[in-house]
């Protein structure tokens, strides 16, 4: 069969495979082992949190879409939205099993454990969330799997083929996100056993996406027009509002119940974001810039990124410190990046990658067991203990190396399957027209 026909009919083959699996593995058996004590309040809160985290991806689409040039708005927003479509399918078939299935040496889950969501009906639960159904836990974690590859898209906005991007996001979800989720959040994961604290995704989400973004920017090289004017700053403002709103589910939902820990995570998320947004404004003014809507929005998001790993482990005063420190560090890295040849289009690495790393380290500084007695690793450096900070440093280095070099390898593999970068002509025309035949 000619090559062009293979490419043409391959998507239909994928749909046929998925349809076949739905008939072969309907997953209708009941799980009635044990005697779980479901809590309706916890279930209600986690249903709400799941919806809140999902709305973050459309929020990210607006946030990124408003920052790019007008000819790339639709393509940039679609790169976020398509994650909701593709990752959901992967997660339901075997993705959840890779992240939370029976552990294989603490590195990855057995893909057959929950294949096609088997064993989800009845009274099945996750051992660390015993008051909610297992299926609800799986759907909540799905939203994290969706937004993580979407975060990367800001780094290569305006210069990647859509078909190749789909291949890369599938590979990233399988080989980068799932192993990190397993290592960090599964009770048998190697980072979890080491004592690493990551309440809601500093390593799993933000560091992995940030390092993948840097790898993408280096691999795809510079755009033909590196500087650009944002298409819609109003989109950025709307996106920031949706992200902040959804982040309450992201962080407070990671308590897996309507409890005091969720309240603490909600409070620390709010204050860290506010502190970072205000600090970004003041720091820009210190550098001789005008206080801008764009800077305020970026600062607020950086604060949310940085507090994510610490939200359930630190107090409100320390969340303010995390917001302030993260805003200053990320702002400085953004300034440094502009003086290099690295073309991270929307500064994903300085904001998400660096923000996540700062948050991870400061978790090791400010974590306190009075806030979360479930923290068995110990108090942070601020309280005179060094063990937790040392553990966080080990995790930071290990996750950084794995995410960066793993992403470089996946980019190379994707490029061999389907060229990653659009042609010069397609880039000049804009991805909205060249990739999708649509116009803003």
Element pattern in H and E: HEHHEEEHHHHHHHHHHHH
The description of the largest β-sheet is:
2 strands, parallel
| Tally of DSSP β-strands | 4
Whole-angstrom Rg: 21 Å
Q: What's the architecture in CATH terms?
A: Orthogonal Bundle
Amount of helix: 55-70%
| Poorly predicted runs | none
Q: Provide the domain count.
A: 1
Q: How would the blueprint of this fold be written?
A:
Blueprint: H1 3-24, E1 30-31, H2 40-65, H3 73-100, E2 103-104, E3 108-109, E4 121-122, H4 134-152, H5 162-185, H6 190-194, H7 202-220, H8 233-252, H9 260-286, H10 293-307, H11 316-338, H12 348-366, H13 387-417, H14 424-429, H15 431-436
Parallel strand pairs: 1-4
Antiparallel strand pairs: 2-3
């Amino acid at each position: 069969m000619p090559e062009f026909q293979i490419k043409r009919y391959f998507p239909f083959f994928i749909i046929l495979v998925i349809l076949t699996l739905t008939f072969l593995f309907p997953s209708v058996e009941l799980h009635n082992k044990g005697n779980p004590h479901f809590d309706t309040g916890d279930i209600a809160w986690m249903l709400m949190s799941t919806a809140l985290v999902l709305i973050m991806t459309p929020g990210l689409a607006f946030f990124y879409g408003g920052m790019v040039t007008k000819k790339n708005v639709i393509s940039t927003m679609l790169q976020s939205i398509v994650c909701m479509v593709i990752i959901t399918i992967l997660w339901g078939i075997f993705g959840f099993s890779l992240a939370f299935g029976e552990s294989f040496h603490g590195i990855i889950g057995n893909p057959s454990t929950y294949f096609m969501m088997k064993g989800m009906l009845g009274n099945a639960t996750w051992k660390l969330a015993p008051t909610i159904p297992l299926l609800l836990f799986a759907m909540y974690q799905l939203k994290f799997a969706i937004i993580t590859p979407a975060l990367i898209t800001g780094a290569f906005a305006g210069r990647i083929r859509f078909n190749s991007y789909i291949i890369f996001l599938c590979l990233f979800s399988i080989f980068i996100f799932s192993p990190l989720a397993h290592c960090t959040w599964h009770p048998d994961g190697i980072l979890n056993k080491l004592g690493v604290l990551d309440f809601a995704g500093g390593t799993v989400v933000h560091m992995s996406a940030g390092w993948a973004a840097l790898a993408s920017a280096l691999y795809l090289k510079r755009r033909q027009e590196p500087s650009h004017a944002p298409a819609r700053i109003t989109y950025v403002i709307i996106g920031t509002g949706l992200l902040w709103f959804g982040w309450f589910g992201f962080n407070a939902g990671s308590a897996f119940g309507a409890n005091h820990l969720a309240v603490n995570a909600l409070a620390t998320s709010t204050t860290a974001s506010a502190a970072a947004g205000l600090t970004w404004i003041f720091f820009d003014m210190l550098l001789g810039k005008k206080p801008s809507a764009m800077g305020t929005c970026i600062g607020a998001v950086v604060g949310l990124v940085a507090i994510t790993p610490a939200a359930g482990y630190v107090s409100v005063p320390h969340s303010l410190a995390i917001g302030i420190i993260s805003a200053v560090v990320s702002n400085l890295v953004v300034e440094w990046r502009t003086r290099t040849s690295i073309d991270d289009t929307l500064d994903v690495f300085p904001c998400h990658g660096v923000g996540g790393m700062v948050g991870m380290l400061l978790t090791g500084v400010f974590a306190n067991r009075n806030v979360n007695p479930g923290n068995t690793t110990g108090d942070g450096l601020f309280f005179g203990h060094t063990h937790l900070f040392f553990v966080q440093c080990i995790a930071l280095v290990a996750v950084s190396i794995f995410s960066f070099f793993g992403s470089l390898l996946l980019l190379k593999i994707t490029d061999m399957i389907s060229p990653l970068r659009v042609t010069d002509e397609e880039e000049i025309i804009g991805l909205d027209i060249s990739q999708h035949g649509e116009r803003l």
